[in-house]
Amino acid sequence: MNDIEFGRSLYKLYHGAVKLETAEVKDNKNCADLTVNELNLIECIRSLTKGQDGSTISAIASELDITRPSTTVAVNKLVNKKIVTKSECANDGRSVRVKLTAKGEKAYSAHHSYQNALAKEAKQYFSEADYKAVETGINKLLEFFNSKFENTESDE
Description:
This protein is mostly helical. It has helices at about 5-25, 35-50, 55-65, 70-80, 100-125, 130-155, and strands at about 55, 85-90, 95-100. The protein has a three-stranded antiparallel β-sheet with strand order 1-3-2.
């Protein structure tokens, strides 16, 4: 595979995954009115709020590497869909806490179950040795992408 084919394959892999996930979540009553980006936001909020009273907009923005205003807009859409709640932080009146509602928890569970099922199904396409090679390759690609972000951030 030459460099151009490799680049195209990465592109197709990403867009194929998003296309598949978009189709799958539309069939789930807990996720039907949510976009893949909203589901990723829900996933982020859930991971940041485990055992806490919610997460701040700043923490969510930082985790997703998006601006606070963009995060606020996205969170407000989820508030309108009754997926999350926003409440004032007890320690800092300027800050708000974002937390999943029961409906948000159901969406998170459905999305999480879908991701696990997809991983198990995809894993069946590989021998054990091939799976280890793919796992190593994915980790190396993640390292590559992370290094590109780190280089960009240090240049600013």
